[in-house]
Amino acid sequence: MGPGPSDVYPQVLAAQARPTVGHLDPLFIGMMDELKQLLQYAFQTQNPVTIAVSAPGSAGMETCFVNLVEPGEKVIVCRNGVFGERMRQNVERCGGVAVCVDNAWGEPVNPQHVEDALKKHPDARFIAFVHAETSTGALSDAKTLCALARQYDCLSIVDAVTSLGGVELRVDEWGIDAIYSGSQKCLSCVPGLSPVSFSPRAVTKIQQRKTPVQSWFLDQSLVMAYWSGQGKRSYHHTAPVNSLYALHEALRLLANEGLEQAWQRHQKMHQLLAEGLTKLGLEFVVAAPHRLPQLNHVYIPQGADDATLRSALLEHYNLELGAGLGEMAGKTWRIGLMGYGARRENIALCLQALTEHLK
């Protein structure tokens, strides 16, 4: 019950154990086409460029930035936790100019602050923000922020590592231009893959670049032909075949449950956990309207030793809780309810273990 990787579905582990075939084998290519359709469903998009990058979510982040941001281009970067700061670092490594809009840790991105920055910097080309900030448990209003991007003729770059499959996310309806996620959070797949999707506007930006993408491996102009299925599929790299089996199965399970039903399940399990934590006297870092149901961020009660208690839970209950990150280190716990882990029996175990050890 940490902040990820989450518990993996047994069916996903079984899928990963299937015989390895070549990454240009007709059977594997057929599965890739299905996987692409399942990703489009999970993202709620019809974007043709919707793929799984052969690396974890951090590579998905870098994929979006290195393909879109060129030297000298200005990016409004929203920071309200650890991963917004990583966005800034990506912008600067691309040679871009980061204009930071900061909010307190535990708060969502403030759209008014973003609009103020856009008015002050009319030459900005992008807005980048974290939809679900894993370091704090805060959920930002992606729909409103992407509407601002369109209003000011910017492309949006969205971190959905912790939100995909756990809370409402509608790429096409909200006008998201570039989005990335991870396989190991609410999809409850094995770590190591990063679903990404680019809108037609974003693809046009990639195709019209004046400078080459500085990363050969992440250059989407080289990978698109492998995933697109239009004409002959060209070899780019050896795909992580068995991991993609696992992602296919995780996405199939999500589609079988139903996307909106999965969102509702995460919210219902969060409410059960929140009621129990409140009865134990634990206080949430994030105000109720902006809390992530899949990442419950609470203050450590006075007198409790962070490392000692988490070690005891791991040893006696086989239960993992996440430590605070950055300025929250040693002050908070991050309790995950992600995908297969968002179950009543896990909540009961967590509350019983905390009750016993906090006494």
Layout: helices, strands, pairs:
Elements: H1 10-16, H2 26-43, E1 49-53, H3 57-68, E2 74-79, H4 82-93, E3 97-102, H5 111-120, E4 124-130, E5 132-133, E6 138-139, H6 142-151, E7 155-159, H7 171-174, E8 178-180, E9 194-198, H8 200-207, H9 220-228, H10 241-257, H11 259-279, E10 295-299, H12 306-317, E11 322-323, E12 332-336, H13 344-358
Parallel strand pairs: 2-3, 2-4, 4-7, 7-8
Antiparallel strand pairs: 1-9, 5-6, 8-9, 10-12, 11-12
Brief summary:
The protein has 359 residues and is of the alpha/beta class. Helices cover 43% and strands 15% of the residues. It has helices spanning 10-16, 26-43, 57-68, 82-93, 111-120, 142-151, 171-174, 200-207, 220-228, 241-257, 259-279, 306-317, 344-358, and strands at residues 49-53, 74-79, 97-102, 124-130, 132-133, 138-139, 155-159, 178-180, 194-198, 295-299, 322-323, 332-336.
